[in-house]
Amino acid sequence: MKELRMHGKGGQGIVVGGETLSNAFLNAGKFLAVMPSYGVERRGSDVTAFGRLSDEPVRENCMCYEPDYLVIFDPSQLKKPATYKGFVPGGVIVACGTDPEEVLSMGVKPSKLVMVDGIRIAYEVTGNNLTNMIMCGAFCRAVPELPMEALLKAIEENLPKNFQKTSILGAQRGHDEAVVYTYEIHGEHSKKAPAWTRHVLACREPEKPRYEAPWGNGAEKIVTVDTGTWKVVRPVLTEESCIRCGICATYCPIQCIRKGEDGYFRADLDYCKGCGVCAYECPKKALTMVQESEFRKA
Amino acid sequence: MLKVLSSNEAAAQAAKLARINVAAVYPITPQSQISEDVSKMVARGELDCDIIEVEGEHSVMSSITGAAVAGARVFTATSSLGLAYMNEPMMFAAGMRVPMVMVDVTRETSAQRGISTSRQDAASTRDCGWLEIDPADGQELLDSILMAYRLSEDPEVLLPTMVVSDGFFMSHLYEPVDVPEQEQVDRFLAPVSERRRTQFSDGKAMQFALSLSGKDYIQYRYHTLKAIDHVKEVFPKVEKEFEEIFGRSYGGLVEEYRTEDAEYLLMTNGSASGMAKNVIDAARDAGIPIGLARIRMFRPYPREEVVRILRGKKAVGVIDRSICLGWNCGHLFQEARAAIACEENMPKMLSFIDGISTMDITREHIELAVGMTVAAGNGEPVQETNWLSWE
Fold it and tell me: N or C: at which end does chain B have fewer Cβ atoms within 10 angstroms?
């Protein structure tokens, strides 16, 4: 039994990616049970999927806490400690990115690290950040038990016809363009002692909540979801073209564009989801949507 | 043939294989995929079924009740607040002795608002007069839906059946599922028209859901109760016949796992059972004589089976995904404790509440439940009800 965990963003096809891997392993005579977890589904928000791989049908229906395989579908997940939580030393990491140090600096010890510039390939193949098949291809490169033919067969037999060409091309490029790094890992990974040895006679009780019912205090700053992390592109203003009409702010679906002291309207990037409505509506084309990866480099 | 399906997709496949005639659907997370899949099958011409579009779950249940009375094989799926909203017509369906199958994909109830897992929704309908089957994975869900139609339409039963699928931990888990051939299913499930005791015919006026009082009222109540109880005899036969055709069976009303020489037991239902079996294997390897009783049928409650399995054990730890608000314990615990209470040397009973909202019933939590159950069996003063999420 091996545990697998996938990290990425809503809209990158992680659910379909997991389902496709499950079909691919079935073609290879193995069982992969995959369970995505995405809360209230929204494009751009974090998505995690859990998988268990076995020669026999899998009987656990739980999340994975000690993954042997990590598949990271988006560069935004590379710098998050939660991505690597519980990763078993000596396991395999398949990551969307180009710099192995970005992964290794997070304190993980993989025996194999497979990196692929998934976002670049995705834009070349599909015109957006849909990296799922590219990462599935790279996964085949990392895991010899899963031959590429099994993945291609899974794509041909299970994905809708109109996605097949780009899916096969993406999977193939992910496989071929992936760069494999291997590392010597010393020492055994010690498993935790089973919890029945803890001699607990009563579970703790929760603390008393602040209010008697699930209310909030309207006078306080409302803590919302960190929607700024969802975006793939962000609006960049060319001040020379801007006439400060504020149409962008009017159309912004989450109302995160405000007028600054200099009279220009700018998006609050902590909330902007990168939907691009502002750039579309701007009568002077003063807003350009620029890929987040450009800013990560800087 | 093995196909990678989520439990939701497996449920829709089962409905199609059962050749349902009428479905009424209203979307709700985490069930929506079932409604969508059934609708797509109809739109593509793969399934000859009328879809009734309605404005809410109350009408879902009311409309398919009418269709079932008229002789159709009907289907629907719902969750959480949707199930709560159809509570009233659910009681009608049971009292009118209408055969039908509904999948409840479990989800927490409000407030606090949330869309994650809990079996509070299903538990809240336990006295509606419905039968309740609790499969543990997608394969068993598909198979249980087929068995549910057989059971529900049995002329000596004629009761609606709810098949419960754990939200997200089953509904959104993709794994290989063996989808039977239509020809096999047709052998197992005769067309509904051949199975009904009460038939509509031209020129014959009939009334349903009459207003009754006094002994007439309680007479029907009593007969409904007897029919529910009778299911305990019918279900093992249905499962045996299922096994003969499909080669799969799940152990009757209560599945026993390594119980024969067990001194301690865990009790679960639904999706938590697979990990519980793994923990039990590990505990056995460590020398702890423990087994698992998995409740597969919650209504009727298999009290005789439960007593037989629990009798003579030192302690039983029951893991629940729902809470009896008013008695700090879970529903499985409450019923098992009631069933075993008349036994001499009754085992020490413990209630563990876990897996509610986004909380997972983890290996570690189940290991902790094993430790506390063993401690209780050895006479240590263990607290009766424990919420594992706080440890």
Answer: N
